[in-house]
Amino acid sequence: MVKTKKLSKRELILTEAAKLFKDRGYGGTSMRDLAGQVGMEAASMYNHIKAKDEILASICFRISGLYISQLGEISATEASYGDKIKALIRLHIRLMVEDGPAVSVANHDWKYLPEPKLGEFKQARKTYEKGFAALIEAGIAAGEFQPVNVSVALFTILSAVRWIELWFRPGRELSAEELEANIITVLLNGLERK
Amino acid sequence: MVKTKKLSKRELILTEAAKLFKDRGYGGTSMRDLAGQVGMEAASMYNHIKAKDEILASICFRISGLYISQLGEISATEASYGDKIKALIRLHIRLMVEDGPAVSVANHDWKYLPEPKLGEFKQARKTYEKGFAALIEAGIAAGEFQPVNVSVALFTILSAVRWIELWFRPGRELSAEELEANIITVLLNGLERK
DNA sequence: ACTGAAAACTAACTAATGTTCGTTACCCTT
DNA sequence: AAGGGTAACGAACATTAGTTAGTTTTCAGT
Hints:
The structure is a homodimer. Chain A has 2 domains: 1-49, Orthogonal Bundle (Arc Repressor Mutant, subunit A); 59-189, Orthogonal Bundle (Tetracycline Repressor, domain 2). The longest helix of chain A has 27 residues, at 115-141. The radius of gyration of chain A is 19 Å and the shape is elongated. Chain A starts with a helix and ends in a 5-residue tail after the last helix. Chain A is mostly helical. Chain A contains 9 helices and no strands. Chains A and B meet through helix 7, helix 8 and helix 9 of A and helix 7, helix 8 and helix 9 of B. Chain A binds a DNA duplex through helix 1.
């Protein structure tokens, strides 16, 4: 089991890096900080990773890949558009709760990717947003949703779930399931009673 | 007019700093970068500001002060709770459109404030959120809103408007007024038709 | 025109950054 | 027991960071 050990050390670095990047930002995290958290010297980490920005890229693209593949699966189901949107909202919340630091990094620090990777990541994001928007548009065309501007609806939904990381502490006052139910209520039914 | 000139140079620095901080982040912006944008040498800026983090603090507290004072005014009116929430949403959108870079910095880079200031800023934010939440809670108690979790509603609304900066380009396809109307529709009435 | 302050400049300092180098310890296979 | 590759290390590299010191320029008020 040679590969296993190698990968697990590397993934330890990636995991700890995501936590630190989330807290202090990419630029605010030094390789020595990260090494201290991992439990080795900064130089030693270069046996497992190629460069600091490769760490960032690994985190970002793992998350974007997850989102895009899940979007494909959900789109392909036979559910109503409302249920598809709900499933996507649940996906975002679940990933945020389970993989919080990495999602946070992919949302905030992607802009520090060096240029070949930066363009690829932007494109991946655009791909995801286009797929999400297509569902909203189809839902409006089917009379299932209100005839609202598609971009506004898309980003209102996306942003509403991206900020969960900032205040949600699982088990404190609110469970993940209650969180899902409440957010879906607000976004799909609106705040006002009718 | 001695004071006027002094203030305008300082404010030029603050304005350009907000733009750079928004694009490259606080840590990703060097004093030499900023000086180049302002049109002077890095050392020269220290005739107008005390330190780099003082720039960050000025930007953050100016924005937080704006939000808190406006919240006070809106809370004191005699409108319905729905109209108060709408007014707050419009406030967020207007500030984002008119003062975009500074709002963006106050939303993303506040965590790099050094420790005495950091605590103050956190408290200011909490003050604002408490005031906002009180309006939602009162609206629910009055039967005007759905009995949803107050924190969830609060942060869903707050986050929905914070991301405008990322994709909204005024005059392109959508005006600020249409933006307001659409966001309010989604948040207050929900996406689904009923 | 003179003066004194405000504000610009050049140069430099210290600290910290990402990364590389050469070497050493470890450990699995033979 | 020996060999060889993996992964750890300490030291050092060049670069860049924020900031300060000292000096010169600009310019409004007398």
